[in-house]
Write a structure and sequence with these properties.
The protein is an alpha+beta fold. It is built from ten helices and 18 strands. It has two domains: 130 residues, Creatine Amidinohydrolase, Chain A, domain 1; 224 residues, Creatinase/methionine aminopeptidase superfamily (Creatine Amidinohydrolase), CATH 3.90.230.10. The chain has a six-stranded mixed β-sheet with strand order 4-3-2-1-5-6, sandwiched between helices. The chain has a three-stranded antiparallel β-sheet with strand order 8-9-11, covered by helices on one side. The protein starts with a helix and ends in a 14-residue tail after the last strand.
Length: 363
């Protein structure tokens, strides 16, 4: 049985446990996770015995190639999705249907309820997302590829940086180089923020030149085809000021200590606290205003979250970012981020871009 088929079997066991006849998966990312299909506009029906991809004729060939073990139900031109779903449910004698509450608008739920005659809807939450938190060996391998592609793209871009380049040019070059190394694109629009603009955790690139300040924050990640990576580094294009050295040192110490705390059995909030205490003790507690990290996978932000109030316990196979930051309006910000795999005995850092401050000097 393939790894993807094993995921559906776990859903099937959940159906039996909850007394639900079938699960209609309408979140396209979850459809990909449970089927291997990389397209969209398609649903997946998991029943107690069989699984069906519900799509249209645009994807017939792609589905046959990507999902050879699944039964395809293809609706023809002019056939609307919900009546087609209703017909399939009727044929399979589904009377209690689990639906993904997190992927439905109120309108969609009402339309579906009206279309599936003789079938009761049972909203469910997090069934697939809970499985996605624990990566299998294929997912880990693909994440490694995404991390390596991000590293290689960054190295090429860094080697060609000049102070007259703009934030926008750096962001565009990162995507170009990532694609050259086999990625289908970026995990998210890259953040490139010069000097004072680095105080904006999610700054959008502008025409500001790198030479306008002594350092630049770059936050980027690569999508290798399905799985993503997420990194942040500071590049020093001028002099290392005493203030930059101090702030950078605090953030790096916080990140390294938090990474060291990652192991099975530790609560997510405890890892966050490790970094938060170091930053707070240095006097910058109010300048670290976001959670320490988040899971990655098919999406750039997934469960679990490393943040206060998050009691989820780390387990082998989880992949999380560790990205503490200090943001000082009018001066700038420092964030350092890596992707970490929780292993059976502790953790493994999947990203390998240098981050000692002296290693961040450009030119």
């Amino acid at each position: 049985m393939s790894l993807i088929a094993q995921r559906r079997e776990k859903i099937r066991r959940r159906l039996a446990k909850e007394g639900v006849d079938a699960l209609l998966v309408t979140d396209f990312t979850n459809v990909s996770y449970l089927s291997g299909f990389t397209g969209d506009d398609s649903y997946l029906l998991v029943t107690k015995k069989r699984d069906y991809v519900i799509s249209d004729e645009r994807y017939t060939t792609q589905l046959e190639e990507e999902c050879p073990e699944l039964e395809l139900t293809i609706r023809g031109p002019g056939t609307k999705m919900l009546p087609f779903v209703s017909s399939l449910l009727s044929k399979q004698k589904v009377t209690l249907l689990g639906v993904e509450a997190g992927s439905m608008t109120i309108d969609f739920y009402a339309d579906l309820a009206g279309a599936v005659k003789g079938c009761q809807l049972e909203p469910v939450r997090g069934w697939v997302e809970q499985l996605r938190m624990i990566k299998d060996r294929e997912e880990i391998a693909r994440t490694r590829v995404a991390c390596d592609q991000a590293r290689r793209a960054f190295e090429v871009v860094r080697a060609a940086l000049t102070r007259d380049m703009t934030e926008l040019q750096v962001a565009a070059d990162l995507e170009y180089q990532a694609r050259r190394f086999g990625a289908i694109g970026m995990s998210f629009p890259p953040i490139v923020a010069v000097g004072a603009r680095a105080a904006l955790p999610h700054a959008s690139p502008t025409t500001q030149q790198l030479g306008a300040a002594d350092f630049t924050l770059i936050d980027w990640g690569v999508n290798e085809g399905l799985y993503v990576s997420d990194l942040t580094r500071i590049l020093v294009t001028g002099k290392i000021s005493p203030k930059l050295r101090k702030v950078y040192g605090v953030v790096l110490d916080a990140q390294l200590a938090a990474i060291e705390a990652i192991r099975p059995g530790v609560r997510c909030e405890a890892v966050d606290s490790v970094a938060r205490k170091i930053i707070g003790k240095a006097g910058y507690g109010k300048r670290f205003g976001h959670g320490l990290g988040h899971g990655t996978g098919l999406n750039i932000h997934e469960a679990p979250r490393l943040s206060q109030g998050q009691s989820t316990v780390l387990k082998p196979g989880m992949i999380v970012t560790v990205e503490p930051g200090i943001y000082l309006p009018g001066w700038g910000g420092v964030r350092i981020e890596d992707d970490i795999l929780v292993t059976r005995t502790g953790h493994e850092v999947l990203t390998s871009v240098p981050k000692q401050l002296e290693e961040c000097l450009v030119g």
